[in-house]
Amino acid sequence: QKEVEQDPGPLSVPEGAIVSLNCTYSNSAFQYFMWYRQYSRKGPELLMYTYSSGNKEDGRFTAQVDKSSKYISLFIRDSQPSDSATYLCAMSAGTTSGTYKYIFGTGTRLKVLA
Amino acid sequence: EAGVAQSPRYKIIEKRQSVAFWCNPISGHATLYWYQQILGQGPKLLIQFQNNGVVDDSQLPKDRFSAERLKGVDSTLKIQPAKLEDSAVYLCASSLRGDSPLHFGNGTRLTVT
To answer: Which residue spans within chain A are E strands per DSSP?
Structure first.
């Protein structure tokens, strides 16, 4: 079983739709949760960074963390064609050496149709 | 704030040749990472530096890959000799400290023929 599972998609939605992207994880030691957006031929760009269970909102984006279910989500409201990209979830946990290890999902390809 | 800089952007080599990638992290970021991203997959960690010391290289194929971070700033990743399966995007990332989110460069796309 992978530590982080993410549906690769592709996911196609009409412009203006609400998009829901999800990841599940198996390691209860994960403490920090992130969502990255990656456009074609670009590096991943940090969208959201959360620590605790609950919701965090930033503009049209809402990140949700449910540690009891080991489940995180990213919601995009009023989706735009410019949101078309691959969305990567990422999680990190401390290690015995005092550093942090980051694990990424495989990414979900999103296409927003005009 | 300037982002993570990587060069070259693209590289095409034949198998068994060598190649090197360069990364300049965000100023003041102590932690530097090299990731390999194969098409359709998420980034996979190759090596992590804290200042100029290696903290995790457990997934680095040490028989062919090497990396160094001189003076705790710039870093280079080398592959020698390259194999076909090394074709991927090599991403460099940095973070202010270990528990801070990662900031990525745009990567080097390597094609091995």
So the answer is: 4-6, 11-14, 19-25, 32-38, 45-50, 54-58, 61-66, 71-76, 85-94, 100-104, 108-113
Q: Where are the domains of chain A?
A: 4-113
Alpha-carbon gap, residue A72 to A50, rounded angstroms: 10
For chain B, the domain total comes to 1
Neighbours of B36 (CB within 10 A): 21
> Which range marks the domain in which residue B56 is found?
5-112
Give the residue on B whose Cα is nearest the Cα of A49. Answer: B101
- To test the contact with chain A by mutation, choose from B38, B54, B104, B111 the residue with the greatest count of A C-beta atoms within 10 A, namely B104
Residues contacting A111, CB < 8 A, separation 6+: A10, A11, A12, A13, A84
pLDDT digits (tens, 9 = 90+) for B51-100: 889 999 999 999 999 999 988 899 999 999 999 999 999 999 999 988 88
Residue B12 belongs to domain with CATH number: 2.60.40.10
- Note the Cα B51 to chain centre separation in Å: 15
pLDDT level of residue B1 (50, 70, 90 thresholds): low
Q: Which CATH architecture has domain A4-113?
A: Sandwich (2.60)
Contacts of A31 in chain B (CB under 8 A): 99
| C-alpha closest to that of A95 among B29, B48, B43, B69 | B48
Token code pair at residue A34: 């992130």
Of residues A79, A98, A92, A101, the one with CA closest to residue B33 = A101
